[in-house]
Amino acid sequence: MLIAVIGVNHRTAPLEVREKLSFAEWAMSDSLKKLLACPGIDGCAILSTCNRTEIYIAPVELDTGMSSVWSFLSEKSGLDISEIKNYTFCHTLYDAIRHMFRVVAGLDSMILGETQILGQVKRAYEMALEAGSTNVVLNTFFQQAITTGKRIRTETGIDQNPVSIPYAAVELARQNFGSLEGRSVLVIGAGEMSELTVVNLVSNGVSSVIVSNRSYDRAVALAEKFNGTAIKFDRLFQYMHQTDIVISSTAAQHYIIKCQEMQAVMKERAGKPMMIIDIAVPRDIDPEVRKLAGVNLYDVDHLTHVVDANLEERRQAAVSAEGIIEEELDEFMKWLSTRFVVPTITALKRKADEIKQRELYRAYNRLGDLTDRERKIIGALANSIVSQLLHDPVIKLKQYALTPEGHLYTEILQNLFNLELEGQRPQAKMASPEKKKRTNVRHHAGSSGWDQGAAAMLADGMSRE
């Protein structure tokens, strides 16, 4: 059984398209059950975040399963299938598995190595389990993906170095104070960058938030998000002496905090240190403030240097992560390939044995009275012929199972001998064998998840007919 994914993310589609293709968690169970009931799908799971929607399936028949996903997305979003295909990517088998392993490791995220995606993949798997939409292949696949994500973070430390201005601000604050537990922050300006910085400071232990802004209503709105206090802009310096960390990000075209004003503040603080993070461009804080005793002033260039250095660290960690992914991919493919070929070999031997027994019965009836010795000789002859005939195909199939085109040889064998595998839904009848063969070759050659050499081999075989 194969694994396939159809998805959309922040690189392939604008927000207005991603919104239409997203799935709310409260509706996920119904969506999964509806998708599972579609033709050609034996198992499914949906990963839906603010930056991506990805549908993973274990199809009974690849083309039918993929078509079902396109139709499912079209019905859900109201978009034409052709329009959806313009914004989505499609991977099968190797590429689908590698893609998931990269996603869960944070290598496919907007912020390289981010950690939130690991929890989101876990939750997607939990919801699929609760809905009963997974099967053995998808269960093992998601479990190994989650294990791979954890292993990469443990062995490479890819998520340890901040790579955004808000995260870098937290990193500098932690370097200054050691622990941020119980610290207070004064926010000057109520823009997005200020808010993101405070979010990260609060999540790291900052307990008190004061917000000041020229528009007092906006200061109140931001303060409410953190159970903080809003103050009018003209009372800024009255509160500054109480705080440990100052975050400033306004749209002012001149310094809003000058050296003389800060001298008065620091005098009142009696030498208690203060950290000021000026992330405004143009700067809000007079750089001369940096010379005052007890003041640690950082501007956006300082934060950018931290981000650049940490991003390079993450890029180096990503190289190691890619190596781990290849190791985990090989392990999963060995498991999947073995699971894929064993039922086929069993079905082949079972069919051969049924034919042998049927033909032996007919032969014995035609030959009339036979001695036990004669029956044993004829039976041994039939066993030997069947065993020798199946020996090479079985050995070769086991060898091919560990190669990228192993699944393709297995499918060919199933089709050539019209095998019925136990526990697998019967595949839909092909309208025309020749038409089906050409369709599959085109699909395999065009899909990133199918081995190009194997597709070429099939095409070459067709050209000789």
UniProtKB/TrEMBL annotation:
The segment(s) forming the Quinate/shikimate 5-dehydrogenase/glutamyl-tRNA reductase domain are: 171-306
PROSITE patterns noted in UniProt: GLUTR (PS00747)
Pathway(s) where this gene product acts: Porphyrin-containing compound metabolism; protoporphyrin-IX biosynthesis; 5-aminolevulinate from L-glutamyl-tRNA(Glu): step 1/2
Cited CDD domains: NAD_bind_Glutamyl_tRNA_reduct
Site positions for Important for activity: H99
Q: Where is the Glutamyl-tRNA reductase N-terminal domain?
A: 6-156
Give the Tetrapyrrole biosynthesis glutamyl-tRNA reductase dimerisation domain ranges. Answer: 321-419
Catalytic activity entry: (S)-4-amino-5-oxopentanoate + tRNA(Glu) + NADP(+) = L-glutamyl-tRNA(Glu) + NADPH + H(+)
Q: What class of enzyme is it?
A: oxidoreductase
Bias-annotated ranges (Basic residues): 435-445
Catalytic residues, per the record, are: C50 (nucleophile)
Give positions of region: Disordered: 425-454
What are this entry's molecular-function GO terms?
A: glutamyl-tRNA reductase activity; NADP binding
Q: Which Pfam families match?
A: GlutR_dimer (PF00745), GlutR_N (PF05201), Shikimate_DH (PF01488)
UniProt keywords, alphabetically: NADP, Oxidoreductase, Porphyrin biosynthesis
Annotated binding of substrate, by residue: T49, C50, N51, R52, S109, E114, T115, Q116, Q120
Q: Which GO terms describe its biological process?
A: protoporphyrinogen IX biosynthetic process from glutamate
Chain residues that bind NADP(+): G189, A190, G191, E192, M193, S194
Q: Per the UniProt record, which EC number(s) apply here?
A: 1.2.1.70
**Organism superkingdom:** Bacteria
Quaternary data: Homodimer.
Q: What is known of its domains?
A: Possesses an unusual extended V-shaped dimeric structure with each monomer consisting of three distinct domains arranged along a curved 'spinal' alpha-helix. The N-terminal catalytic domain specifically recognizes the glutamate moiety of the substrate. The second domain is the NADPH-binding domain, and the third C-terminal domain is responsible for dimerization.
Quote additional remarks: During catalysis, the active site Cys acts as a nucleophile attacking the alpha-carbonyl group of tRNA-bound glutamate with the formation of a thioester intermediate between enzyme and glutamate, and the concomitant release of tRNA(Glu). The thioester intermediate is finally reduced by direct hydride transfer from NADPH, to form the product GSA.
Report what the protein is called: Glutamyl-tRNA reductase
Task: Tell me which species this is from.
Answer: Desulforamulus ruminis (strain ATCC 23193 / DSM 2154 / NCIMB 8452 / DL) (Desulfotomaculum ruminis)
